[in-house]
């Protein structure tokens, strides 16, 4: 189980526990977080962009080159940005804090 803490666009903090093996994107969507995840994990949209807390970022396996390329296109990306569809939660991760970026660039260009 991983304790996932979401910091919403308005600063609201929500905590959920996630099963080992769950994808962060699914956990976020199940909690009602506004992550579109348009491409359903194909690394073709960046609408699942989240900003990982600095203290948790190093605990995650590094992003692949494809993920880095998508993050380059994500609005408001930072040094600790990741694609939520690429983060698998597991036993090695007791807790994870991520911020939902305020600026989302989705497929409709809204
Ligand atoms: S859901 Fe499209 S890149 Fe993650």
UniProtKB/TrEMBL annotation:
Assigned keywords, A-Z: 2Fe-2S, Iron, Iron-sulfur, Metal-binding
UniProt keyword Iron-sulfur, yes or no: yes
Entry keyword Signal: no
Annotated Pfam families: Fer2
Domain 2Fe-2S ferredoxin-type: 2-104
Family statement drawn from the similarity comment of this UniProt entry: Belongs to the adrenodoxin/putidaredoxin family.
The protein's name: 2Fe-2S iron-sulfur cluster-binding protein
């Amino acid at each position: 189980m991983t304790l996932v803490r979401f910091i919403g666009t308005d600063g609201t903090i929500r905590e959920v526990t996630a099963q080992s093996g769950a994808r962060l994107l699914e956990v976020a969507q199940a909690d009602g977080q506004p992550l579109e995840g348009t491409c359903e994990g194909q690394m073709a949209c960046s609408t699942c962009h989240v900003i990982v807390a600095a203290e948790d970022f190093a605990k995650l396996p590094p992003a692949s080159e494809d993920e880095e390329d998508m993050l380059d296109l994500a609005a408001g990306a930072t040094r600790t940005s990741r694609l939520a569809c690429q983060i698998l939660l597991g036993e090695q991760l007791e807790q994870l804090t991520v911020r939902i970026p305020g600026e989302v660039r989705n497929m409709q260009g809204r």
